[in-house]
Write a structure and sequence with these properties.
The complex is a heterodimer.
Chain A lengths: L8 E4 L5 E6 L12 E5 L6 E4 L13 E6 L2 E6 L8 E9 L4 E4 L3 E5 L1
Parallel strand pairs in A: 1-9
Antiparallel strand pairs in A: 2-6, 3-4, 3-7, 5-6, 7-8, 7-9
Chain B lengths: L2 E4 L3 E3 L5 E8 L7 E7 L6 E6 L6 E3 L7 E6 L4 E6 L8 E9 L1 E5 L3 E5 L2
Classes of the chains: A mainly beta, B mainly beta.
Chain lengths: 111, 116
Amino acid sequence: QSVLTQPPSVSGAPGQRVTISCTGSSSNIGAGYDVHWYQQLPGTAPRLLIYGDSNRPSGVPDRFSGSKSGTSASLAITGLQVEDEADYYCQSYDISLRDVVFGGGTKLTVL
Amino acid sequence: QVHMVQSGPEVKKPGASVKVSCKAFGYTFTNYGVTWVRQAPGQGLEWVGWISTYENKTNYVQKFQGRVTMTTDTSTSTAYMELRSLRSDDTAVYYCAREDDWFDPWGQGTLVTVSA
């Protein structure tokens, strides 16, 4: 059971927009800790997609965006492409556990 | 460019120990921490712990306390993670990553297989 809750799967057609939620609590996201997002393509290591809730590292297309409100965060992907098919993970810090915490991951299928 | 290169796959018997290395390239090693994350087959990401490369301070997830040791060699910009008393459920890909609150970049991963 992950401390941060993500939907196991989402899907969309090429060109569409999808969002992936990441729900936490008052001891992590709700306490103001930053949320970071990672993309893991099949058979590869994760790569940073969004840091500090809504910032994109250089090289990440502006089709990817992040937001946070209250005890939840969201990753939005617009203009879906087949190569976006991957697993996506959110990550934050939990003050009660004093640990880094990950979401369980969301598998994105591009139909 | 900035990247991390990990050691190769390992096969160990239950009860044995494994030591995985992670060499950093393209930045000043002591300016960032190194974090370790594992991923069991078909499962999500699990944080194992973190080491400060500047002062060798560590923070391990409680479930690994007493079994894991993270160290660094600043002369070679290399971080190490040793896991002892291996069990079958330690079978996973172990990743290192440069830590700056977020994790970037990640190493390519090291598959550790624990099997009798």
